[in-house]
Amino acid sequence: MMNEMARFSARRPALWAVAAVCALAWPALAQSAVAPAARADNAAASADALQPRKVSPYKQQKLTEKAKNYYVAAWGIDKLKVSYTSSGNLIRFSYRVTDSERAKTLADKKYTPYMMGQRSRALLQVPVMDKVGMLRQASTPQVGQEYWMVFSNKGNVVRPGDRVNVMIGTFRADGLMVE
Questions:
Q1: Which of 3, 37, 82, 140 has the highest count of CB atoms within 10 angstroms of its CB?
Q2: With a threshold of 0.90, does the pTM exceed it?
């Protein structure tokens, strides 16, 4: 029995050493198995950040002749344009007046202009500055003059290529492309 105890105690330090090595080596083995996958994910994420934003395969369509004729006949305006500013924090809506009587609704200060992004469903408003007031032209429309208003786009929720709706009082322009 003593011989067996001596043999067991002689093997015991070896078993503890094997257990200690396994305990220390296991996290390193697990990390080396996970690390390539994590490195691949990080590499893919950084590669995506370096690539330019994908461009839509669909061609931009301008207003149809029927739509242009409608805006001229109903609202007295033409050359509707929605532009993305260089910083992206503002979106400019501009139009040219062809009939000053019909275009009065767009220049009336009592109506609050709104722009709604069709993709993001964000409702943008004209910002009001303390000393300047609303960032829009609100004078009596004159034939042949181009007028504009600027909408706040904080967070860049509306981007170039998106379609927007512009609403001012009873005026509504749907599906304008942001250029």
A1: 82
A2: no
